[in-house]
Amino acid sequence: MGNPLDYLDQFIREGQRLIRLGVSAITTNCGFLALLQPQLAAALKVPVLASSLVQIPLVQTTLPPGKRVGIVTVCASTLRRHI
């Protein structure tokens, strides 16, 4: 995919198009889009979950003390900068 920031404008345009069509929330399934979460949430006037990785803080709060969230990914070195 390259750098997700290179695609920010396209994601915002498409998000705005979806909103015009009547959607009330936007989600994606690409973990690497976590980098765009703040920008997309600010630019689009509906709830945005750009990545399942944005749920990590929530999931962590549900775990017993001493436990932590695990992530399976194809590219751990790239993922580190996203979380």
Features:
83 residues; mainly alpha; two-stranded parallel ribbon; 4 helices; 37% helix; globular
Q: SSE layout and pairings?
A:
Blueprint: H1 8-20, E1 26-27, H2 37-43, E2 48-49, H3 56-62, H4 76-79
Parallel strand pairs: 1-2
Quick recap:
By secondary structure, the protein is mainly α. Helix content is 37%, strand content 5%.
Could you characterize the architecture of this molecule?
It is a single chain. This protein is mainly α. It has one domain (4-82). Helices cover 37% and strands 5% of the residues. The chain is built from 4 helices and 2 strands. It has a two-stranded parallel sheet. Helix 2 (37-43) links the parallel strand 1 and strand 2 (48-49). The longest helix has 13 residues, at 8-20. The chain is globular, with a radius of gyration of 14 Å. The mean pLDDT is 88.
Q: How do the strands line up in the largest sheet?
A: 1-2
Order of helices and strands: HEHEHH
> What's the alpha carbon Rg, rounded to whole Å?
14 Å
DSSP summary: helix tally: 4
Classification by helices and strands: mainly alpha
How many strands appear in the DSSP assignment?
A: 2
Largest sheet: 2 strands, parallel
